Amino acid sequence: MSVDQQPGAPTRVVDGVVLPAPGTWEIDPGHADVAFTGRHFMITKVRGRFTDVRGAVVVAEEMNDSTVEVVIGMASVDSGSAQRDEHLRSPELFDVEQFPEATFRSTRVDWRGSRGAVHGDLTIHGVTREVTLDVDFEGQVRDPWGGERSVFAARATVNREDFGVSWNVPLEAGGLLVSKEIAISIDVETVRAD
């Protein structure tokens, strides 16, 4: 493995690929988008996002030794419809009073070039399941205040019923009102903390 890094630099070149420098990169909540997409009537896409996202990526010398920890405030759900959001927060779905937070904690990283698979424990609605995020390092920039930012994007698909979020209505013609399969997409800016 070939590594080229200037002392204190926010990035390094590993085998010809630019990657973030080792250290703790904290998620900037104001520039974090954790979104989900499901199907309504098994046809229409319905999208939502969470606005309360906190956590950090700890980048190791060896990318495969890196870790990720994220906390999501479930009451911050925003689907563009106040009525739908109240239903999502209700005991029938997220039950935010009993389960106010969802978490993701990585358990293993398989990194190749500028992308990798981050395996971890996702806990939603008090239920923990292993989920794999397909992650891309999208670049690094210095902000106007002198902070160093690294940007990551990730994707996964989960079955919401695996997490006990199982409310649904059968359709007269067959199928269900809301899809079981939910696509998750994540875009986060992280700020170098050390």
Automatic annotation (TrEMBL):
Alphabetical list of Pfam families matching this protein: YceI
Domain of life, source organism: Bacteria
InterPro entries according to UniProt: Lipid/polyisoprenoid-bd_YceI, TTHA0802/YceI-like_sf
Residues annotated as domain Lipid/polyisoprenoid-binding YceI-like: 24-191
Similarity comment: family membership: Belongs to the UPF0312 family.
Name under which the protein is recorded: YceI family protein
Species of provenance: Nocardioides ginsengisoli
